[in-house]
Amino acid sequence: MKRFIFTWIQPVTVAVIVAFWALAPAKWTDNPNSILIAACVTMAFVQSLEWFNERHIDWRLTRREFATDVFYVVLGFTAIDWISTHCADEPLKAAKAALHINTPWAMHLPFVVQVALVIFLIEFGQYWMHRLMHNSTPFWLTHAPHHHITQLNALKGAVGNPIELFLISLSVVALFDLPLVAVFCAGNVLTAVSSFAHANVRFDPPRWYAFFFTTVEHHSLHHSVPFEDTRCNYANSLILIDRLCGTFRHGEAAVVGQDERKRLSIREQFAYPFMPLIAMIRARQSQVMDLS
Ligand SMILES: [Zn+2]
Ligand SMILES: [Zn+2]
What distance in angstroms lies between residue 218's CA and the mean position of ligand 1's atoms? Predict the structure, then answer.
């Protein structure tokens, strides 16, 4: 019975989320708070699964880990969402209006296709941004704090330097004419799959699910300690993109982290991209002190 549940829980959750947004009354789905509530319920649900079928004892959630994870979830829903809306989505909508970019065809697609389109648009953009972060030092400095986490848990997808969280939130969805409910549904599916992919849960998903969607096996491998081993499985939720772009790798990792596996505090995670600059200033200051 347990095996059956942990085989089907990921695809069934995705199906329930799609059905919810397709069938829920408009007065619920039109309310902007509905995605916030749905995302929180989804994350709480995936987090609770860690009590029933733990993957690694070393990844067991502690109060300190949970407090950090919750801090970043709140940051994501407040400051990062505000900056992303005002500095990316709204200017993009203004450009769409000024340039008369219209996609009326998208409004007439079946609901499931609209959701799939939004998922693909978000994931394709995130894939390339994430790949850039693993191949360019300035971008890596923003993303490295996410790789310094030393255990995986359902909410760990929210943990990262704020600059990275903003960069990874960028998408071109605002250029398309799409019903808000399809965008909310896609966001909710991505929250579920990303939470599953970071969760300390021993799932045994059907092969077709792991062909399309990122699993904790794929994503734990991306969190490997040797840096070169992290350069695979970039897709946050749609591993199909890695398969198509030649960056997919099979396997999983039980030991995660970077460098000496030093766990960073929230302060260190915020300061991380500026560490080379701080080190340079300190070196100059000590040189001046030595000369004087
Ligand atoms: Zn990464
Ligand atoms: Zn991750």
Answer: 12
For residues 44 and 70, give the distance between their C-alpha atoms in angstroms, rounded to a whole number: 11
- Hey, which residues does 201 pair with through a beta bridge? 54
How far does the centroid of ligand 1 lie from the alpha carbon of residue 223, in Å? 7
pLDDT digits (tens, 9 = 90+) for 41-64: 999 999 999 999 999 999 999 999
| The pair of three-digit structure tokens given for residue 291, joined into one six-digit string | 């000369």
Burial grade of 185 (CB within 10 A; 0-12, 13-18, 19 or more): buried
Q: Which ligand is nearest to the CA of 216?
A: 2
Residue among 201, 177, 199, 173 nearest 187 (CA): 173
Q: Which ligand is nearest to the CA of 197?
A: 2
Three-class SS state of 256: strand
Q: Look up residue 254 and give its two tokens.
A: 């039980």
Contacts of 49 (CB under 8 A, 6+ apart): 9, 154, 199, 201
| 65-70 contact pairs (CB < 8 A, 24+) | 65/151, 65/153, 66/153, 66/155, 68/159, 68/266, 69/153, 69/155, 69/156, 69/158, 69/159, 70/155
Is the pTM higher than 0.90? yes
